[in-house]
Design brief:
Layout (H helix, E strand, L loop, with lengths): L1 E2 L7 E3 L7 E2 L5 E10 L3 E9 L3 E2 L3 E3 L3 E12 L2 E4 L3 E4 L3 E3 L2 E2 L3 E7 L10 E3 L5 E2 L6 E9 L3 E8 L4 E4 L5 E12 L2 E3 L4 E4 L5 E17 L14
Antiparallel strand pairs: 1-4, 2-21, 3-4, 4-5, 5-13, 6-12, 7-11, 8-9, 8-10, 8-13, 10-14, 15-16, 16-17, 17-22, 18-22, 19-20, 19-21, 19-22
């Protein structure tokens, strides 16, 4: 399966309006934003857990990166309410569930070779950053030199401009974001290849964004069976 697999092309999706696709686990559905592969895939998705649903225990051979959007995501290691961010490096395992239901943004098989950093940020955690002009707040969730992940809130009507040297990926956590003639609401997703700078506007109530500044696929991204 190939979904938005050409990383040289920009992608702008109002993902909050996309249909849900059932996963192999009962009560767990997905909105597939990027995918290379079948059930084992290099992928970026929004995943919805119905109340009481769970995924069988499994190992993430290629690592996983998660932002909890609504509800509380759970596994045997703890509870992660909305706003939590974590990185489970390659080789880690868990049994995910959601007693009361949740929605998460998840990236799979996109870790670099040798990246073994395990990060757990509960809501509001992370290093405070000086906000860019037009932004109200900014927090750094992760930065190892090759990747920089932030949560930023932008004032109503503010213009968002950012140079894009390595690649940019954005998720609208709340509010609205306008790029050209496209208006993205909550769960809107943007992926811009290097060299295509960001120029957007925050909506009338502002916008909260998850932003990753990094190569869209690192040269040393872990190889996945069946995917180059």
């Amino acid at each position: 399966m190939q979904i938005n697999a050409d990383l040289t092309q920009p992608v702008i999706l109002d993902a909050g309006r996309m249909d849900w696709v059932p996963s192999p686990a009962a009560g767990v559905d997905r909105r597939m934003l990027y995918r290379e592969g079948d059930e084992v895939a290099r992928a970026t998705s929004i995943v919805r857990y119905a109340p009481g649903s769970a995924f069988p225990p499994h190992v993430h051979s290629g690592g996983e990166e998660i932002l909890v959007l609504t509800g509380t995501f759970q596994d045997e290691h703890g509870d992660y309410p909305a706003g939590s961010y974590f990185r489970n490096p390659p080789g880690t395992s868990h049994s995910p569930a959601a007693a009361e239901g949740c929605e998460i943004f998840v990236r799979l098989w996109q870790f670099r070779s040798g990246d073994s950093t395990h990060i757990v940020r509960q809501p509001g955690q992370g290093d405070t950053l000086p906000p860019r002009p037009g932004a109200a707040t900014a927090r750094c969730l992760f930065d190892d030199g090759a990747e920089r992940v932030t949560i930023e809130t932008w004032s109503p009507g503010a213009r968002l401009q950012a140079a894009n040297v390595r690649g940019l990926e954005l998720l609208v956590v709340s509010g609205q974001l306008t790029l050209g003639d496209r208006v993205l609401a909550c769960q809107g997703w943007v992926r811009l290849p290097a060299g295509q700078d960001l120029d957007a506007m925050a909506g009338p109530a502002g916008v909260e964004l998850w932003i990753k500044d990094a190569a869209l696929q690192h040269p040393d991204t872990l190889p996945m069976p069946g995917v180059r």
